[in-house]
UniProtKB/TrEMBL annotation:
Name of the molecule in the record: Uncharacterized protein
Annotated region (Disordered), positions in chain: 1-25
Length: 188
């Protein structure tokens, strides 16, 4: 917000920093808020898209969210670890999803998905009942940390649900909605 305030106080003529500066709050606020951009040169107002970095004449220029809003983290053999209705499964660095995640989180989600693939390959190869149960339990527990980090990085504009391992894994849960971390108020 400081960048936006600084830019707006700089007085006309405003430079090319205006649009990217205004896009930051649009991305942070998400699809439930309307952020408008006044183009002084064309003397028009356009809506800033929270996900695609384009200007639209209407508040929702896509008619439906172009990017996943409600995201599920779920580990499944040979599938991306993220899913969303109407968007399917996808990888954390998929440019169409417009998530803009940290490199560490992207690597963590890829590693978690790869471990699921490797463990299932071993489980199918060895066909020994219960041999990999401890590893499945570990992978289930391990997946909740990147789900929480995903919620923290995405902020309040999207919801994140952690579903664990697909097809009921040994430690299945129905779902856990993960909220972005917020500091607790001091209630003294």
């Amino acid at each position: 917000m400081e960048a936006l305030r600084s830019w707006s106080l700089s007085g006309p003529p405003h430079d090319e920093r205006g649009l990217p500066t205004a896009q930051r709050p649009a991305r942070h606020l998400g699809p439930s808020w309307a952020v408008r951009y006044w183009d002084e040169g064309r003397r028009t107002v356009k809506g800033l898209c929270w996900g695609c970095d384009r200007l639209h004449w209407e508040r929702d220029g896509h008619a439906s969210p172009p990017h996943p809003v409600d995201i599920t983290v779920e580990g499944e053999f040979k599938y991306g670890p993220l899913r969303s209705d109407g968007f399917g499964d996808f990888l954390p660095d998929d440019p169409a999803a417009a998530l803009d995640l940290s490199d560490g989180l992207v690597a963590g989600l890829y590693g978690w998905a790869r471990s699921i693939d490797d463990t299932l390959d071993l489980d199918v190869r060895d066909r020994e009942e219960g041999r990999y149960d401890a590893e499945w339990d570990r992978l289930f527990r391990q997946g909740s940390a990147p789900a929480q980090q995903l919620a923290d990085e995405l902020g309040p504009s999207r919801t994140v649900t952690y579903k664990g391992l697909a097809h009921g894994g040994p430690a299945a849960v129905t779902s856990v909605i993960v909220r972005p971390w917020r500091p607790r108020a001091n209630l003294r």
